[in-house]
Amino acid sequence: MSLDQTKTQSSIATELFDLRPVRVSDKGLLSYYASDKRVALMTSRIPHPMPPGAIDAFIAQACCSDREEIVWVMDGLRTGLPECMGLISLKILDRGQSEIGYWVGPPHWNSGVARAAVKALLESNPLRNCTIFANVFQDNPASARVLTNAGFEYIGDAESFSVARNANVQTWTYLRKMGST
Predict the structure, then answer these.
(1) What is the pTM of this model?
(2) Could you tell me the strand order of the sheet in which 167-177 lies?
(3) Which end of the chain is less crowded, N or C, counting CB atoms within 10 A of the terminal residue's CB?
């Protein structure tokens, strides 16, 4: 899929919240959650401590038209929940494939937010992917359960570098074949 097809990013509604494009006004809550060491340690790309300007750079990249990753905010404002509860993204690969990634702010852990976001993104399949990959750190079984409950199949072990840990971390790798698109 060419990046030209992804320039206009639509919102995706769930029962409790919307997945919508990142906005500059998200900076406060994104900074708050992403600066939490517990969040950073479970991701490959969030540094800890968070350096000055990192969230601004992230927002600028998420909003630019030549991005290689489409990012949605989990926005509960419509139903009385916080405006930003976490992020979910699709990193564009080749041949109709993407890699899904997500994180949820600690106040929303174990609330079903990640499960609902993954389910909504898969059902919408906004990039019309034929396959979506995912990987989670092996010390994050809750995230692995989100994937397996969404129909992802375990395909093996690997490792990924974690900026916050400054180390390679063992991962579980998953894939989900999407319906014909």
Answers:
(1) 0.93
(2) 12-13, 18-21, 69-75, 86-92, 97-104, 131-137, 167-177, 153-162
(3) C
